[in-house]
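Complex 209.
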Amino acid sequence: MVIAIDGPAGSGKSTIARRVAEELGFYFLNTGSFYRAYTLSALRRGIDPSDRDKVLENALSTAITVENGDICIDGIDAEGELHTPLVDRWASPVSSDPRLRELVNSSVRSLASGMDIVTEGRDTTTVIFPEADYKFYFDASPEIRAQRRLNDQPGMDFQSILESIKERDRRDIEKESGALRIAPDAIYIDTSLLTINQVCEKVIKTVGK
Ligand code: DC
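Predicted structure with 2'-deoxycytidine-5'-monophosphate bound:
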């Protein structure tokens, strides 16, 4: 079974998908981590992340795997370095290359094949798994999403987080390939005023487990 969750940054996709996967005993697959890992790998190697050809060339020679839900780059756990401001800044432009998207999409599909998974990320319900058994679209206001990010990374400035979320939304919506869209048959959940538990309950109730 495939449960796919789409939505903008900070809408609760990762937290909820991970929790639902744990509760159902399903495998958790975070598709954004692949773009973050390719971005991190390019940055580590001194590659200009706006140079699409170089980023793609590097990606083709980089092994991204998932061990216990954590992303590894060439066999080494990189999960702890995927959410730095620099990776946040560049993951969206890196993810806009249709060639890189094809690479990520086929890796994700082959990892998922034959498994019960909960997967999340923009375009999981529209492009990667349009035939998913259950599709959800999570949403929340930019202010709520900025506050959530601030709770995760205290010490940052609320206003600059808010600006970067708005900027990222704009880039993700306008992207030439894999743009953020609501699948017509997705179940829409506004998570702004809901707790993590409440959203998990809604999802689990919907899938009837
Ligand atoms: O969900 P996230 O913030 O970790 O994703 C990192 C970036 O990758 C973000 O800019 C959105 C993009 N992304 C994408 O284009 N398609 C996906 N399936 C997942 C993420």
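Residues 9, 31-32, 35-36, 91-92, 95, 121-124, 168, 172, 178 surround 2'-deoxycytidine-5'-monophosphate (CB under 6 Å).
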